[in-house]
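[Automated response] Your request has been received and processed.

Submitted sequence:
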Amino acid sequence: MIRPVRRDDLPTLATLQSHLASPSPDLLDAAPAVGTCLVAVDDREAEQPIGYLLAVEGENTHLAELVVHPERRREGRGRALLSAFLAEQDPGTRVTLAVAVGNDPARSLYESVGFEPVGYNEGFYETDGEGGGDGTADSSRSSDAVIYAYEV
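Generated structure:
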């Protein structure tokens, strides 16, 4: 099930955010004020969030974070979050996002729902040396990103 974020979800979302290569805790804290935050919940565990989507609204809408707990991936949760989010957008809205070049599962998901690559940004993701922006071990300090867009 997909639902809007609730204030009491934020500690769980902070834990989920730790699975991202380049998390933005300040953005997550500001989520209710800056845009849309939807959560995917586990129906079996009292609506416990197992993933979330965070988008920042402005001239364009930017999908800033999408994460699903690693043990719950490949269950359609990311696709459900994306579909619910896109269904809420007004016609003519442009949604953008950035994804690490090497994050093939995410790129495949975005492309399968209609996002198209529109740019490339070198060194977009800063890493702490433990991940390369694609969930794999890498000693690099940054990772390139592909920029995608979707026209509603």
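Summary generated for your ticket: The helical segments are 10-17, 25-29, 31-34, 77-88, 104-112. The beta strands are 2-4, 35-42, 48-56, 61-68, 94-100, 116-126, 142-151.
If you did not submit this request, please reply to this message.
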